[in-house]
Write a structure and sequence with these properties.
Elements: H1 2-21, E1 23-26, E2 29-34, E3 39-42, E4 50-53, E5 57-60, E6 63-70, E7 81-85, E8 92-93, E9 115-118, E10 122-126, E11 133-135, E12 142-143, E13 156-158, E14 165-166, E15 179-181, E16 188-189, H2 198-201, E17 206-207, E18 210-213, E19 216-220, E20 227-228, E21 238-239, E22 252-254, E23 261-262, E24 275-277, E25 284-285, E26 307-308, E27 321-323, E28 330-331, E29 344-346, E30 353-354, E31 376-377, E32 390-392, E33 399-400, E34 413-415, E35 422-423, E36 436-438, E37 445-446, E38 459-461, E39 468-469, E40 482-484, E41 491-492, E42 505-507, E43 514-515, E44 528-530, E45 537-538, E46 551-553, E47 560-561, E48 582-583
Parallel strand pairs: 3-6, 4-7, 6-8, 10-12, 11-13, 13-15, 14-16, 19-21, 20-22, 22-24, 23-25, 25-26, 27-29, 28-30, 30-31, 32-34, 33-35, 35-37, 36-38, 37-39, 40-42, 41-43, 43-45, 44-46, 45-47, 47-48
Antiparallel strand pairs: 1-2, 2-3, 5-6, 9-10, 17-18, 18-19
């Protein structure tokens, strides 16, 4: 079990890593893509020069992505970059994106008050001309991450009403900054926004390990007590991203009424945290909010919750049960991955999407009912849920994605929807207790290793519409007795039925043209093979080790029999081979007549 769990961890890490690193090029600019949100971030472009236009949207393949972020160091050092047109959907920009560019020397972009702005709506930089008591004009809808970073002149700042985000590193290192007014419009304070300021460095500003600015809890330190209490006099209206992350003492906390969001990574790696009381006002729990809080047992979600971020409870190994708001429509990627003691779960009635690896590794999770509203179940969503004995897939699901029920070792009964189009790679790999499964007529594809290692599988109903049985689809289905290849299938892929040691009868479809390498390797109970008239190729080791094979009928149009195709079929007389067929010297080695 430990080995299986570690394998799941590696797979989840790979899923997230691949998604985070997916890149594309569009009109000579590099981007990072988010395929779930359909947004794009401008990546590093060290060769950019002249005037560039960053489009509102880009098209990659069949998808359109809104350009919402200009990333860290995107154009850093581009000395010949003179002008930039920004996209209208821009939500975030890093000051560092333009370090060392000619863009900064354009005097038209610098105002007398020491602000470098773009289109008079985006504040990118400040310099020594900024007034000590700075009031930022409300015309600025967005302030870049790090816009004031390292500024030595500013002593107080009033942020503009309408601003939604206090960005990462916004005032970092402003050692004379002693006061900041944060407007009510701000809904998010990012990490390190106030690190190294006069506020942050003033011990008198800290109360029981917590630093508040204008009703916002922006930072905590090692002095946070085991049981945390919020200030009573001034209501806490929001928490900064990662505000309690890596707290070594925190064990319990009651979040204040009126709080609307638990931000990303708020309690990440709080290894002693056991209990969190969440008020009814919370609408969102951010990504990584309780990531790897191994002792967390109690954290009831509010009834009005609308969003639950990816990896929110990843690795919370002591979490026992969870209930959801009926307003919740999405459970994100890896949300409950590795919650090894989670047993009971009632999914919300309006749930539409279960993300990749959302419940993977929940080894104690008992059978659950998937609501009819579900349209998508992500890759490895329930992989390693060892207590599952039955599952019924809702009718709105058209594809079982990669590894969705991988290593559900006690899964016996599976009900598939009538409109299922594809069974993805490794969908039921290692589900050793499944005895039978009927694929609906709509099924077009069975993916790689989809049923590999289903050692109890005796019967599989393969529909006539099926066009693809991919590599290793039924590898090591040791109790499978009989298979009928549908007439629409043209290619039987490599290792499709290898090591099906009890397979006795195979009926080959009319359109089958090629039998892949190792397709029936070591099917030692197989006695007779009559290939369809359209078969032209028998692949490498296709029937190797079929020790009880006594009769093979080859079609007149057969063109090629590859290496070791019938190697060690010791009871097989060499069949009649068409005169024009190309036959490997080892094709019939070890057979009865050779």
């Amino acid at each position: 079990m430990k080995k299986t769990f570690l394998l799941l961890v590696a797979c989840v890490t790979t899923l997230v890593g691949l998604r985070a690193q997916e890149s594309a090029k569009y009109n000579d600019l590099n981007y990072l893509l988010d395929n779930k949100k359909l947004t794009a971030e401008v990546d590093k472009n060290p060769q950019a020069y002249g005037e560039i236009v960053i489009p509102d949207e880009i098209t990659v393949g069949q998808k359109r992505y809104r350009v919402t972020v200009i990333g860290d160091k995107a154009f850093k050092g581009c000395k010949k970059l003179s002008h930039v047109v920004f996209p209208r959907y821009l939500e975030r920009v890093y000051r560092s994106a333009f370090d060392g560019t000619a863009f900064l020397t354009d005097k038209q972009n610098w105002s007398a008050d020491g602000f470098f702005s773009v289109n008079d709506t985006i504040l990118l930089f400040t310099n020594k001309n900024v007034k000590a008591k700075c009031v930022v004009d409300p015309k600025y809808r967005l302030i870049a991450a790090g816009a004031f970073e390292g500024n030595k002149t500013v002593t107080s700042v009033v942020l503009p009403e309408g601003l939604k985000v206090v960005e990462e590193n916004l005032f970092k290192g402003c050692k004379n900054l002693g006061k900041v007014i944060i407007p009510k419009s701000v809904k998010k304070v990012m990490r390190y926004a106030f690190d190294g300021t006069a506020i942050y460095l003033n011990d008198k500003k800290w109360k029981k390990g917590a630093l508040y600015i204008d009703g916002c809890l922006v930072a905590t330190n090692k002095d946070v007590p085991a049981t945390f209490q919020f200030k009573d006099k001034v209501p806490t209206r929001l928490l900064a991203e990662g505000v309690f992350a890596y707290s070594e003492k925190l064990q319990s906390i009651t979040l204040p009424e009126g709080l609307e969001e638990i931000p990303d990574a708020a309690f990440q790696h709080c290894m002693q945290l056991q209990e969190v009381m969440i008020p009814a006002s919370v609408k969102r729990v951010g990504a990584f909010a309780f990531y790897e809080d191994e002792d967390l047992r109690w954290c009831k979600l509010p009834k009005e919750l609308e969003e639950l971020g990816e990896m929110a409870y990843y690795g919370c190994g002591d979490l026992r049960e969870q209930q959801f708001s009926d307003k919740l429509k999405t459970i994100g990627d890896g949300t409950f991955f590795g919650c090894k003691k989670l047993k009971q779960l009632r999914l919300p009635a309006q749930l539409e999407t279960i993300g990749d690896a959302a419940f993977a590794g929940c080894v104690e999770l008992e059978d659950i009912t998937l609501p009819a509203s579900i349209r998508s179940i992500g890759e490895m969503a329930f992989a390693g849920c060892d207590k599952f004995t039955k599952i019924s897939i809702p009718e709105g699901v058209t594809e079982l994605k990669k590894g969705v029920f991988k290593a559900c070792r006690h899964l016996v009964n599976v009900t598939l929807p009538a409109g299922l189009y594809a069974v993805g790679d490794e969908a039921f790999l290692g589900c050793t207790m499944i005895e039978k499964i009927g694929l609906p007529e709509s099924t077009f594809r069975i993916g790689k290793q989809a049923f590999m290692g289903c050692q109890s599988l005796e019967r599989i109903g393969i529909p006539e519409n099926l066009h693809m049985i991919e590599e290793g689809a039924f590898n090591e289905c040791k109790r499978l007795l009989e298979v009928q290849i549908p007439d629409n299938l043209e290619l039987l892929s490599d290792e499709a039925f290898s090591d099906c040691i009890n397979l006795r009868k195979v009926t080959f479809g009319k359109k089958l043209r090629k039998i892949g390498s190792l397709a029936f390797y070591n099917c030692r109970s197989l006695q007779e093979v009559k290939l369809g008239a359209e078969v032209t190729t028998i692949g490498v080791s296709a029937f190797q080790g079929c020790k009880n094979l006594t009769k093979v009928e080859l079609p007149a149009g057969l063109m090629k029999i590859e290496d070791n195709a019938f190697l060690d079929c010791e009871r097989l007389p060499i069949p009649v081979v068409p005169a024009d067929a190309e036959v490997s010297k080892t094709a019939f080695k070890g057979t009865k007549d050779n």
